[in-house]
Amino acid sequence: MSNVSRTGKEEVNNATSPTTFGRSVESQAQMQDxxxxxxxxxxxxxxxxxxxxxxxxxxxxxxxNAHNHGAVxxxxxxxxxxxxxxAARELDFMEVDAAPAEDVTTANASAFRDDKLYTVIEIDxxxxxxxxxxxxxxxxxxxxxxxxxx
Length: 150
Known about the structure:
Elements: H1 25-37, E1 47-54, E2 72-76, H2 79-88, E3 118-127, E4 133-136
Antiparallel strand pairs: 1-2, 1-3, 2-4
């Protein structure tokens, strides 16, 4: 349902704009800001440092489906990105011959992405001297257990 209304005898309003993508003043400013943020002259993009801490009790049933890696420190853009960076270190079904089906990933099932298992705490912000990734802590790759023994 459209929220467009016609109040008069002017042409029908089809809720479109004559502008094209990327040409508005706002779009130009956003693209310039993004280019400046990621410029190699300024030292790369601004990243924050986050610590992902397990918050669920050890006997929480959620740990039955996820591996507790302990505390992990990552460099990322946002708290959500910190979860993605940490989860990316875990082994994925797509990386081994054990894929349950084509185009199936287990990345979304990571404990790091569950806010009931891990919390994200910002430690530092606006750093250009680090690269996006794990800074401290160990992320185990034994998150996928084989069903059959060799």
